[in-house]
Design brief:
With 306 residues, the chain is an alpha/beta fold. The chain has 11 helices and 8 strands. Strands 2-1-3-8-7-4-5-6 form an 8-stranded parallel beta sheet, sandwiched between helices.
């Protein structure tokens, strides 16, 4: 992109919604992998706001179908406040997680900002999982499997009301890409709510290019594009550092094409990077791959055509 972007990095070091410990170390791994310098090299003006503070993970069993709900609410409230403040200041927030439950706070803040500014919101959910569970559908109670459902109004009151409007978003605003692991009850619920999903079978059949053309269709200059990038979107052969690996994800080139086409739209205005788990990684390999892909989101390309 040619215009100077004012970017704010926000660390949320928690694994409060996850089923494995270690995503709390994700923000530091991204810093070590050189995220700020990589964005500066792409022409962004970067401020690292440091890490948010929240409750420690008590590592308890679920209650009423939710694990750690009070702590999840506390972390997401912090994220909401921080992301909303950056948007109000005209900056692009990049949330460095932490697990994917944090997208409830992040996207509810983006939705609030869009309501106030009269902008259309589109969410691209890059993930191996649909994250559309509820407390009655979930096999685990881990809230990182519920953020899309919560944002669409299906969840505990404290989470679905976080951004001041319920639901925060409509399922029609979401495009999910790379999905390949969905619980049985969750699958039915996704179909009932008419969520638009470009799963790996679809990408195998038509290719990443066509899938992304469809996912990016009908956007215009008044669209705020939010990208929620779960690192387990990638195939575990190149991104082993996640708690929920699922084989059969996009290849290295498919992932870059996805990011390059998002960049070409010129509409991305906020970003989550979540579920990076350095405890399960190999010499920070996954963080380095993630930074590489985020450079493509910010305009890095090998395109040689004129």
């Amino acid at each position: 992109m040619t215009r100077l972007r004012q970017v704010s990095l926000i660390g949320a070091p928690t694994d409060i919604g996850a089923g494995a410990r270690g995503a709390s170390m994700g923000p530091e791994a991204l810093r070590v992998a050189g995220l700020a310098a990589a964005l500066q090299a792409r022409g962004a003006q970067v401020e690292d706001r440091g890490n948010l503070q929240g409750p420690v993970n008590p590592w308890l069993p679920p209650q009423d179908g939710y694990r750690h709900l009070p702590e999840v609410v506390a972390w997401n409230t912090q994220v909401h406040t921080a992301v909303y403040a950056e948007l109000q200041a005209g900056r692009m927030p990049i949330l460095m997680g932490g697990d994917h439950c944090l997208a409830i706070g992040s996207i509810s803040a983006v939705a609030r900002h869009c309501r106030e500014r009269g902008k259309k919101l589109r969410v691209l959910w890059l993930d191996a999982h649909a994250d559309f569970n509820t407390n009655t559908l979930t096999p685990s109670g881990n809230v990182h499997g519920m953020p899309v459902a919560c944002l669409c109004g299906f969840g505990p009151q404290a989470l679905i009301e976080l951004g001041g409007a319920t639901p925060a978003i409509s399922p029609k605003w979401v495009r999910q890409i790379g999905i390949r692991s969905v619980d049985e009850g969750e699958r039915r619920f996704v179909h009932e709510q008419d969520l638009e999903v470009f799963d790996m079978r679809f990408i195998d059949e038509v290719g990443m290019r066509h899938a992304m053309e469809l996912a990016l269709a009908t956007m215009d200059a008044n669209t705020h594009l939010h990208v929620s990038f779960d690192v387990d979107f990638l195939d575990p052969s190149m991104a082993p550092g996640v708690g929920t690996t699922v084989p059969g994800g996009p290849t290295y080139r498919e992932a870059h094409l996805c990011m390059e086409m998002i960049s070409d739209s010129g509409l991305m205005a906020s970003l989550d990077i979540v579920e990076l788990n350095p405890a399960l990684d190999e010499r920070n390999k996954t963080a380095l791959v993630a930074v590489d892909l985020i450079e493509s989101l910010f305009g890095k390309s090998t395109l040689m055509r004129k």
